[in-house]
Amino acid sequence: MSEAVADPGRALTEADTRRHLAEIDDQGYTLLEGVIELDLIAELRETLERIARDQQIGSCQNDFEGHETVRIYNLLALDDVFARVPIHPSVLPVVEGVLDDGCLISSISSIDIGPGESPQPIHSDDQVIALPRPHPPLVCNTMWALTDFTEANGATRLVPRSHRSPDYPNLSKDIPSVPAQMSTGSVLVWNGSLWHGGGANHTSERRVGIAMNYCAGFIRQQENQQLGVPRDKVRNFPKRLQQLVGYGVYRSLIGHIDKQDPRKLLGGDPLLKTIWDD
User: Fold this and answer.
1) pLDDT tens digits for 81-132?
2) What CATH architecture does domain 14-247 belong to?
3) How far apart are CA 59 and CA 247, in angstroms?
């Protein structure tokens, strides 16, 4: 794992970003230690607790999502504070380095692993795409630590360099892995081909994180952002977040509406120069 490279809330330097990208290329993942402001972490936790309480969200009920794990989906639609997560300056440049600046938000959800939870099956996040492996990165995912992540309380388990494997993992097998232990305010970033899974929680505390996941601009998103996030809310997002949600065009072609920029639906400039235009 990497040593601390930035103070909380400060963007990584270009040298830091290059080093983290080299780690992802080599081992499939990297750790951004202590890069998120602790006041933001506290607000995110308080907001998640309020949403779970008000909406009476209980634990999941399957072996993959867990039986003692609370998951809250479609966070951008639920509170304005979550709009700060996808475009955080200490994280997004690393993701864009793995994919490119045409990447999209695939999903944003919380994962709250409770005491007594068993380990999640080892899997890869691009497994449902089912292309021959290895292949160029299609997915780049991140886990924000809203609490300390330890081996005992369910830190994400990783299989280093498995993103280079020609095989997808067998979900029914017990596969050796290592824990991604990190302190509150840190972010784990990994290539979506990496084999990984949530750990078992053998403690009396909860392990809380936000899964902020991205995909290439030509891949269908895991959560339908355009339908799932009300348009009136998206209108107030920064332009970069509007693009990440899907109100944009990938490489001047994919995603246009009658040769116009989808941001016209938000009141933006509809003009678009496509790859066909001189």
Assistant:
1) 999 999 999 999 999 999 999 999 999 999 999 999 999 999 999 999 989 9
2) Sandwich (2.60)
3) 33
